[in-house]
Every structure is written in C-alpha cells, then in structure tokens.
Specification:
The protein is of the alpha+beta class. The protein has one domain. Helices cover 24% and strands 28% of the residues. The protein has 3 helices and 7 strands; from the N terminus they run αββαβββββα. It is globular, with a radius of gyration of 14 Å.
Length: 129
C-alpha cells in the first residue's frame, strides 16, 4: 500500500492525525469476528475517540464513504471503500475500535491499516507513547 511508504518520513502526529495519548491502549489485535471476517481491533479505545481514529484512517488510505454513519449509545459504524475493497470502521462497547474486512479484496488493506495503527500507537521499540 502506497500510504505506508511515508511512515518514517513524517512525525507521528502529522501521519496519524491525532496526538498519541494512549495510557489505556493495550495493543492492536488481528482476529476473526463471529462471522469469520478478518478484523483489526483496538479494545481499550473509548467511544469519544472513534471519529478521530476513523478520520485518520480515511485520510491515510484515501477511503470513500460507502454507507451511512450509524451511531448509538453503545456502537458506531460506517462502511468505506477503496477500489474493490470494502471495509467497516466500527466501535462498540464490547470490542472497542474495530476495522472489518467486508470482502476478500479488503484483506490486504486491512493489514496495512493494522500496521498504521500499530505505528501510531507505539514508538519504534514497540512501547506505548
């Protein structure tokens, strides 16, 4: 993915689009959801940070809106696309912040987004900011 080429040439704030204040963030997890779709999850992210993280990912990977934002008291989700890839960027009270590959074409993009989040949440030694 072309978006990751710039990772080492920009400050973390310039790249990520937010200030890393991650005292409670444990880690970025790669797993399957209950429907068998691949997901990247940041469990301990509060609902108040959903829009900030979503917007940073949308900017970094030039995503296009592919569905309406649905937002409730304990969940928020919206679908995005890039070429043939479709993915959901979500938050819920049980899982935290989640990026879901909605189709097979989104698998590589999902991996790149996971690496982006890891870079934004950790310093070069793998320690949290």
């Amino acid at each position: 993915m072309a978006g990751l080429v710039l990772l080492h040439h920009m400050s973390r704030v310039e790249l990520c689009g937010f200030y890393p204040e991650w005292v409670n963030i444990v880690n970025v997890k790669y797993q399957l959801d209950a429907s068998g779709r691949r997901v990247v999850e940041v469990h301990d992210l509060s609902a108040s940070r959903y829009q900030e993280f979503r917007d940073a990912i949308v900017r970094q990977f030039d995503l296009q809106v592919a569905g309406e934002l649905v937002q409730g008291m304990d969940e928020a989700f919206q679908d995005f696309s890039h070429n043939e890839a479709i993915l959901g960027i979500e938050w819920d009270i049980w899982s935290g912040f989640i990026v879901v590959a909605r189709n097979d074409q989104a698998e590589e993009l999902l991996e790149s987004i996971g690496r982006f989040l890891e870079h934004c949440l950790h310093d070069s030694d793998g320690k949290r900011d």
